[in-house]
Design brief:
Strand content: 15-25%
Structural class: alpha+beta
Radius of gyration: 14 Å
Largest sheet: 2 strands, antiparallel
Distance between the termini: 15 Å
Strand order of the largest sheet: 1-2
Shape: elongated
Number of helices: 3
Helix content: 25-40%
Length: 52
């Protein structure tokens, strides 16, 4: 079982079919830096949120 009682197959299907991968994975990217007009981002997993 994965997050919120989903199965691996359900998650794979949702990720493959998803338009917004960050939202599906519960990631909220933040801007890290800008080089040559390319914006680099990072996202962290909120450990507290995953334990609830």
């Amino acid at each position: 079982m994965w997050i919120n009682g989903t199965t691996k197959d359900e998650m794979v299907y949702e990720i493959v079919d998803s338009v917004n991968l960050e939202e599906t994975l519960d990631l909220y990217p933040q801007e890290a830096f800008l080089i040559g007009g390319i914006q680099y981002k990072y996202a962290e997993i909120d450990e507290k949120r995953n334990k609830e």
